[in-house]
Predict the 3D structure of the following.
Amino acid sequence: MQVRGAPAIAIVGSLSLAVELTSSPPQQTADLLAFVRESLALLVGARPTAVNMKKAADELSAFLAEEAEKPPCPSPVVVSVIRWAESLLEKDVKDNRMIGDLGAQHILQTAGAPGGVVIMTHCNTGSLATAGYGTALGVVRSLQAMGRLSHVFCTETRPYNQGSRLTAYELVYEKIPATLITDSMAAVTMRERQVTAVVVGADRVVANGDTANKVGTYQLAVLAKHHGIPFCVAAPSTSCDLSLPTGGSIVIEERPGQELTDINGVRVAAPGIGVWNPAFDVTPHELITAIITERGVFRPEELKDGLSRGL
Ligand SMILES: CSC[C@@H](O)[C@@H](O)C(=O)COP(=O)(O)O
């Protein structure tokens, strides 16, 4: 949890490897490859639900295997790894800006009316969770830049409070009109505050559109359906995992019970109570109206073909 947010996990993980390699580069290519392999296994296992680190690790391994064939000395390989990690950072910002603009256009088209829109979002998906700009929060930023954002409701996002600590911070910093609500206020907010769309991020979107994201996302999707509100997932293609057919096989990270029972190190829950603390849940594709990627906006059933085009 020192690093959080699916794209940031992959980018910081890769850059941390680059830092390690810079400070003490293995002298032999075989040692370098072994070190990278072990480090990547550790990084992938640290936060298993988000697919981004796994995809980055697979790409880096393939890239390194090719690079290692070329020079006899490992130092140029180290330089290549650093450049590769830096390119992830640049691509993520570019992708997020595209997601922001495509998502904003999609929501305005769906809303139809000429005025401003009201967005509800969950967890933190902004600059603090990505290389910059953000995914779902990137859509919010683009709407604001277009002058078409009326208001944002951000959920507290219990138990780790990414919403109240991070998203609220980003919204205040950007001077975006916003209100913080507890997770349990989502239904009444949808009914009484004219929410135009719910926009969330993703840790893993699989081939049929089922989406793992911060726990509590699923209940927002159920509520959105009940209230007839579009439910959009905003995620780069690096968060999509077409190798899994459905969300049933996504590994869900379970976190320590203390995150629920304690606040700022002080126990507030009754001693002896059992705790279940899954960090993510899976929203079934039937509840998702749009998946906004840098390559286009898709209905869940269009995702696989949409992303495969132009690969
Ligand atoms: C662009 S970030 C998308 C997701 O990673 C985000 O919504 C989320 O669930 C973050 O969870 P976290 O446990 O804080 O890493």
Observations:
- Residues 4-7, 50, 123, 125, 129-130, 135, 162, 201-203, 213-214, 279 surround MRU (CB under 6 Å).
- The mean pLDDT is 94.
- The longest strand covers residues 149-155.
